[in-house]
Amino acid sequence: MYTADDVMKIVKEREIEFIRVEFLDYAGLTRGRTIRPDNLRDAMERGINFSTAIMSFDSFDEYIPNPMYGAGDGDFFAVPDPATFAVLPYRSKTARMFCDLVDENGDPWPGCPRHALKRLLAEVESVMGGRMYMAYEQEAYLLREENGRLVPADDSHCFSSDGVDIQEDFVQSFVHALEAMGVRTEQISSEYGPGQLEVNLRYTHALQATDDQVTFKQVFKQIARDKGLIGTLMPKPFEHLAGSGLHVHISLYNDAGENLFADNTDPRGLDLSEKAYHFIGGLLKHGRSLIAIGAPSINSYKRMRPGTWAPAHICYGAGNRSVLVRIPEKRRTRRFEFRGGDGTCNPYLLSACLVAAGLDGIHNRIHPGEPASDDVSWLTEAQMQERGIARLPRTLEEAMDSLSQDTILAQAIGREIWEEYIKVKRTEWEKYTRHVSDWERRLFAQRF
What CA–CA distance (Å, rounded) separates 261 from 270? Predict the structure, then answer.
């Protein structure tokens, strides 16, 4: 964990000439500036100014209608966190730092997702007597361009050695770059789709784990670009191939190293504590809203269909990959896995909302009900109703409708973030509904 003095020393010793100071907007896109070493100390103390209006841009990089932040709303200041300093091994004499956003008085800016996560993690330590740990597990495709079309970079098959063998140059460069930046990978595999990889990042404190995921998002794309490929975390790049999900593993430990989500006297046989069950209850209660945060693109809902191994129902289960919250087998350390995210999300918002939902479950002792042991994607409406299992949103619009009614999450992450995030995403949905695709033209122009 670097201090400001450590950073200044490394910059001098490594002859770093450029430092990128970065943050994520509500659309999940990286925003930032590049500064020179002479400005670094002042940046870490006072921050780099940005117009608040940058948070009112959507994924199309267009300013949304009726924004919260306009030309007359001044600046916030991005203060680089020394703990996130990393030299970019794939760029010449360049380093990178993630930022917290503050106002003109140096106080946390209310619209800062990273600060919302830090504040909620502090509440976990105060209320629950432990530290939240997370690990992100991302699926992503490597693509190449062929005759003007994007196609998978190879034809490897699931869990084979072929994918990592064919893409050895990319995989090794990618892993080495992550490790040089302080991010450790636990395992890498060739996934269900051709050209698709799955990467498990190390288990660590939730803020570090979230920073690591942001680094993953950036490095995966940049290393692929350097290799003449396109690396994408897009949830559903091909209609006929597997989608790419993002799973977040969650646990709670106290200072003595005791897992507060574990209890081997659990009468339900899952070896989970009451805290764990209540946390899961909170995740399920806010499941539809969490999907709005974790799967925030119009493309996300083309992946989350029943029978696709992506969650489409609000329930939990042990070793069950059809549910929203999965409990790994007891051979694994006690934790649970939220399966409703994808690579288009802002990881700071997702982590913050997962913590907020879990805290609501613990505060109000929300029990998740009985675990599902079967593939819930095949349940009839009557069976779902009998078992109290609801569907997840099927479109971005439906997800935003759910989030807009979730005043508990709004209060937890901050109403400024909540309101503007919803407006950004509703704008993206509106643009999507106006788009006329080649598929529509081919179908309707010939038939009508």
Answer: 11
